[in-house]
Amino acid sequence: MTEVPCAKPQLGRPGPSHRLVKLLGYWCLAALTVSAARIWAPQSAELLQSLWWAVGGLLIGAALLDFLTGRRILGLEGQRKLPANLALGVRNCVHLKLRNHGQRALKLSVCDNVPQQLDSNGLPRQALLEPDQEVAIEYSLVPHRRGSAEFGRIEVLADSPWGLWQTRLWLGREQSVKVYPNFLGISSLQALSTEQTLRHLGLHQQQRRGEGMDFRQLREYRLGDSQRQVDWRASSRLHKLISREYQDERDQEIIYMLDCGRRMRAKDGELSHFDHALNGLLLSAYVAIKQGDAVGLQAFAAAQDSSGGQLPPVKGESAINLLLNNVYDLHSGTGSADYSGAAQQLLGAHKRRALVILITNLRDEDSSELLTAVRLLTRNHLVMVASLRETAVDRMAQKPIGDFSEAVEGAAARDFLRRRARLLQQLQACNVLVVDSRPELLHQALVEAYWRLKRSGKI
């Protein structure tokens, strides 16, 4: 949690409270009673009018006295404590702390200047602060857009002693916090081994014949080890059988080509396809980094207000943090994806052979440009195309037909899926690996495809 020191309060002008407005309203309504009395009871009209003026004088005098005694608010301080960062769609708690160093009790209505990209719950709140008393207020936030979230100062309405006036104050300081993608709890996987991580994701390692090519360590011979694993020199020195243990090749490069075009703005549920793509990218990149591989990123067709999106392959413990800070403020644009231009840009920047993973939302009208782009990439790289299925179209194709309009919709959906399947087959014919997944399962599909390639020795 990030706690910002107190700042000097900013004091606004006092304004009439709801109580004063109501009292003035009742006093004005009483004038109608006096006017009616002149018609129906002339003998008591003068008495009622005198009483009405007396009440009005008392009300104005009380309001003036309350204004003079309550216009100055001294000794009120406020602080906001925020999480170090926020995750998209995850509920977080914010803590406000108010302290009264003044000489009189304060009745407060507390609110906070929450950024528009965050949904808050639990405000405004009422609080009564006696002199030298402190109160803690907690409310919840749920981010619905990634990027930098800018908080204004804490906003407080302080009642005058009789509650006829309210003074607006701004406490604390402005703060900024980053909203990151919610990539299915990478922090919960950090203490797990690769095998445990795969099991946590619901994936099962497939046994393979043979071993990796990179030497890992020497260990005692185990039943089932092949003879070529035995290190005879170490065995003769230690007078017992010693085996060499190998691991999958490390120091490979994986480059994600992320489509940020308008199709990625489609939604299946609460998150857009683009946010699901980021979740899958980050989680599969984390698994690759744990395996010792380097991970890079090239985003294309991003929104103009986006930052980042370009990262050369990096490896090591800090790589996932570099990737996170590179994509947290990356947003999908409204233009079309230029696959050929993105492929040429990648070929110009990366000469070494790598696994290139293109994450996009395929349509059959992309066939010509997409096939041209992947043919360029396969000259130097191993290429994988990961496409997000639109579950709304799947549901439409499977929906029972009840009338003519539903029959037309169902036929259009099945035709769309047929042409899309033909494009995927054309990609496979170009020696391109294809991952076709529902958006919410993309993270699992990408990790499974990466691990299959790793175990096969292709990367």
Keywords:
Rossmann fold, 21 strands, five-stranded antiparallel β-sheet, Immunoglobulin-like, 459 residues
Q: Mind sketching the topology for me?
A:
Blueprint: E1 2-3, E2 10-16, H1 18-40, H2 42-70, E3 76-82, E4 86-87, E5 92-100, E6 106-111, E7 118-121, E8 125-129, E9 133-143, E10 147-151, E11 154-159, E12 165-171, E13 175-180, H3 186-189, H4 194-200, E14 214-220, H5 232-238, E15 242-247, E16 253-259, H6 273-290, E17 294-300, E18 310-314, H7 319-327, H8 339-349, E19 355-360, H9 367-377, E20 382-388, H10 391-398, H11 404-429, E21 433-437, H12 442-456
Parallel strand pairs: 4-13, 16-17, 16-19, 19-20, 20-21
Antiparallel strand pairs: 1-3, 2-12, 3-5, 5-9, 6-8, 6-11, 7-9, 10-13, 11-12, 14-15, 17-18
Helix pairs in contact: 1-2, 6-7, 6-12, 8-9, 10-11
What report would you give on this structure?
This protein has 459 residues and is of the alpha+beta class. It has four domains: 2-12 and 73-180, Immunoglobulins (Immunoglobulin-like, Sandwich), CATH 2.60.40; 19-70; 198-203 and 250-456, von Willebrand factor, type A domain (Rossmann fold); 214-247, no CATH class. The protein has helices at 18-40, 42-70, 186-189, 194-200, 232-238, 273-290, 319-327, 339-349, 367-377, 391-398, 404-429, 442-456; strands at 2-3, 10-16, 76-82, 86-87, 92-100, 106-111, 118-121, 125-129, 133-143, 147-151, 154-159, 165-171, 175-180, 214-220, 242-247, 253-259, 294-300, 310-314, 355-360, 382-388, 433-437. Strands 18-17-16-19-20-21 form a six-stranded mixed beta sheet, sandwiched between helices. A five-stranded antiparallel beta sheet has the order 1-3-5-9-7, with no helix packed on it. Strands 2-12-11-6-8 form a five-stranded antiparallel beta sheet. A hairpin with a 5-residue loop joins strand 11 (154-159) and strand 12 (165-171). Helix 1 (18-40) runs antiparallel to helix 2 (42-70), helix 8 (339-349) runs parallel beside helix 9 and helix 10 (391-398) crosses helix 11. It is elongated and about 120 Å long. Mean pLDDT is 85; it is low at 206-210.
